[in-house]
Design goal:
The chain is of the alpha/beta class and about 475 residues long. The protein is built from 19 helices and 16 strands. The chain has a 5-stranded parallel sheet with strand order 4-7-10-3-11. The protein has a 4-stranded mixed sheet with strand order 5-6-9-8, with no helix packed on it. A hairpin with a 4-residue loop joins strand 5 and strand 6 (about 150). It is globular and about 115 Å long.
């Protein structure tokens, strides 16, 4: 039996005479096609969304939904983790600041944008824990042929939330330096039957490491292997964090629902996953941009010292991270993309905010104490005592600095960097004298006032003096 249908109610196509069954089949086909088209349009829209230009400021804005202030610190944390998906550009980050500054909170909030399988969160680790990883565990496998245990940390983000000492960093120096993709360690294990036995452990990289610690005075070797960051602790940051905590704990379900529905957060997660699945493993810096970086670095580092080589490497990694954020907009050559001048400019702006403290080999928080307290009340011809430093610290920050922390952490770091020298005067306390930073300390202190305090470094200085060489 046939029915007369002037047109399909879905596609509006003229059908002429058609059976009832044929009409239903046609309508089912049209519905399926319509669903496919909607899905296709959504996929196109998603891709178009991922091809919108993305700057470091955009990253900071999105991260700001759960991390108030700390613009520089949270941005570098994110792009540092983003470098995990390259072959060799991974970096090590040391989050060094006083207790309750928000170190672990920042790291965990940033890590939330990355696939859970790529993130290894540890409360802490003993100095040789990675060498003793069980071969039946999640990270290690036993190679029967070579009689080795392989600990695979390739493209992992390893977070240590509380690392009270630097012994683990000392044991992993060769691995953290990227000397080789695979580093072999020989260790001894005690067996009940055989006594001491030697085991061979092969650790494979490269991976991104984030160490959180309240200790500020690390060995010089650890300082050069890590990019040091410190959360800000000024009044504005503390207030913002308190009101965010009030929102979250007043109604946790509502807070989580709001974060889950945030389109910007969803997009940033999509960018991370898109990069991971892209197959992009490296970023090429073209000759024209390489020459510009060479000129800029030489202009701002007129007397280069050995640690500047590692500092330059970290800056180049930031350039590449900026390109990776926009990999769909970059020229692609096999599994590599090409960086642009835009990437270089944005990376230099970000690096400049942490360059002073890091190139001196001190945590940004220590540098801020020097800037805001010691250099403020002292001078080359006018030293200050520990008591005066503690008093001024309380006046500036509204809280006390523990004398032990000043003696064991802050002052040794500043002395090692050349920013402070001490002189014991007979019959009185030790005096501490702030020293010029390559003859332009006054300019640096003046210029960094009013800039983002979370960076701890202000504008990149012209490192031409002895203080930097001492670092």
């Amino acid at each position: 039996m046939t029915v007369t249908a002037s047109s399909c109610p879905i596609c509006l196509q003229e059908l002429g005479e058609i059976s009832a069954e044929g009409l239903e089949n046609h309508k089912a086909y049209c519905r399926a096609r319509e669903t496919e088209e909607v899905t296709h349009r959504k996929q196109v829209a998603d891709i178009l969304c991922l091809t919108e230009p993305y700057s470091f400021d955009d990253v900071a804005r999105v991260l700001g939904t759960t991390i108030k202030n700390d613009t520089t610190t949270k941005t570098i944390l994110f792009v540092g983790m983003l470098l995990t998906y390259t072959d060799e550009e991974q970096i090590n980050i040391l989050m060094a600041a006083e207790s309750a500054a928000g170190k672990s909170y920042l790291v965990l909030e940033v890590a939330d944008y990355f696939p859970k399988d790529d993130v290894l969160k540890l409360g802490g680790a003993s100095p040789t824990s990675f060498m003793h990883e069980a071969s039946t565990g999640k990270l290690a496998t036993w190679n029967e042929e070579s009689k080795e245990t392989l600990v695979n940390l390739e493209r992992k983000i390893v977070i240590l939330l509380d690392q009270p000492h630097d012994l683990l960093l000392q044991k992993l120096r060769a691995f953290l330096s990227h000397d080789e993709k695979e580093i072999v360690y020989k260790i001894t294990d005690r067996s009940q039957k055989s006594g001491l036995r030697t085991r061979t452990i092969r650790i494979r990289g490269f991976s991104t490491w984030v160490f959180c610690s309240a200790a500020l005075n690390y060995d010089q070797q650890e300082r050069t292997r890590n990019l040091q960051l410190s959360p800000d602790t000024n009044l504005e940051k503390v207030k913002s964090a308190a009101w965010l905590l009030l929102d979250r704990q007043s109604d946790r379900a509502k807070y989580r629902a709001g974060m889950a529905a945030n389109k910007d957060r969803e997009k940033l997660r999509a960018l991370v996953l898109d990069l991971k699945q892209s197959g992009v493993k490296d970023v090429t810096i073209p000759d024209s941009l390489k020459q510009e970086i060479h000129r800029q670095w030489e202009d701002t580092h007129q007397r280069m010292v050995p640690r500047h080589v590692r500092d330059l490497g970290r800056f180049l990694s930031l350039v590449k991270a900026r390109a990776l954020l926009n990999w769909r907009l970059r020229t692609r050559e096999d599994d590599s993309i090409v960086a642009t001048e835009e990437d270089y400019t944005d990376a230099w702006k970000l690096y400049s905010k942490v360059s002073v403290a890091n190139e001196l080999g001190i945590a940004p928080q220590v540098y801020r104490i020097f800037e805001d307290v010691i250099a403020k009340i002292g001078a080359l011809d006018h030293g200050v005592t520990k008591r005066e430093i503690l008093t001024e610290y309380h006046a500036v920050y509204g809280r006390a600095l523990q004398p032990k922390s000043l003696e064991k952490d802050v002052l040794p770091c500043l002395e090692a960097s050349g920013l402070v020298s001490e002189q014991k005067i007979s019959g009185s306390e030790t005096m501490y004298y702030p020293h010029p930073l390559g003859g332009h300390l006054t300019e640096v202190i003046r210029d960094t006032k009013g800039t983002d305090p979370s960076g701890g470094g202000g504008n990149a200085p012209n490192h031409s003096g002895g203080a930097v060489e001492a670092a």
